[in-house]
Amino acid sequence: MTGKDILKITLNLVIVYLIGGLILAFVYAKTSPIMFQNNKIAKEKALKELMPEADKIEKAGDWTIHEKPAEYFAAKKGDEVIGYVVQSFGKGYSSYIDILIAVDKGFKVQKINILHHAETPGLGDEIETVSFKGQFKDKDIEHLKVLKTDTTEFIQAISGATISSRAVTEDAVKKGVEFLIKTIKEGGAGNAGHKQS
Q1: How far is Cα 130 from Cα 10, in angstroms, rounded to an integer?
Q2: Rounded CA gap, 8 and 24, in Å?
Q3: What share of the chain is helix, strand, coil (3-state, %, to 5)?
Q4: Using an 8 Å Cβ cutoff, are 63 and 89 in contact?
Q5: Confidence of residue 188 (pLDDT cuts 50, 70, 90)
Q6: Is 0.90 surpassed by the pTM of this model?
Q7: Which residue of 18, 34, 80, 164 is 20 to 30 Å from 55, comparing CA positions?
């Protein structure tokens, strides 16, 4: 193989990579706004499912948990605030679990919705079941604790998935509710930039 052949092959490879890069950039430029809009619609739908009685759910601010940016919202019926929704993250067995938590004006949990996780199929992914999520209804901050035994007062751990159960309950949900209490009830808008580790 001569130097001319090597130069020709190199030039062909550069051209192929450039064309491929341009095609990828074009596809990304076309699909990125669509993906952004779809994510926005999915989040709005998830918020509405958490607080169906609200006329509108407005973003109230941002906060950070586990160095991940999250948001919180005020749910209103007419001009009256009827509750809040906070996005939170819990450090699970194999992923950070992204959760939305709806609370009433007394900061009791009404519903939770798991937005995203990568927990173990057949074990940790049981956090998405209705039976697990349903345990959170009307729990206040004092009752957001995981037990391995039968309980209705606290949250019963998923068998074989205690880490995932605790990540949802004691990390994401409890810290999200604590943040809302500190920001809305105790500190007002002054704590909007609050960070939680």
Answers
A1: 57
A2: 24
A3: 45, 30, 25
A4: no
A5: low
A6: no
A7: 34
Spatial separation of the C-alpha atoms in residues 88 and 135, rounded to whole Å:
18
Distance in angstroms (rounded) separating the CA atoms of residues 46 and 85: 10
Predicted pLDDT at 195: 46
pLDDT in tens, 126-162: 999 999 999 999 999 999 999 999 999 999 999 888 8
Whole-angstrom Cα distance, residue 89 to residue 30?
Answer: 30
Burial environment of residue 102 by CB neighbours within 10 A (0 to 12, 13 to 18, 19 or more): buried
In whole angstroms, what is the distance from residue 194 CA to residue 94 CA? 26
Query: What are the two backbone dihedrals, phi and then psi, of residue 160, each rounded to the nearest 5 degrees?
Result: 80, 0
Running DSSP on this structure, what letter comes out for residue 8? H
Beta-carbon contacts of 19 under 8 Å, excluding residues fewer than 6 positions away, are: none
Cβ contacts of residue 82 below 8 Å, gap of 6+?
51, 53, 54, 75, 76, 104, 105
pLDDT at 121: 83
DSSP at 141: G
Q: Which amino acid is at 133?
A: K
Residue 52 token pair:
């169906």
Residue tagged 């009256």 (tokens)? 80
**Alpha-carbon distance 12 to 51, whole Å?**
58
Joined together, the tokens standing for residue 177 give 């509710």
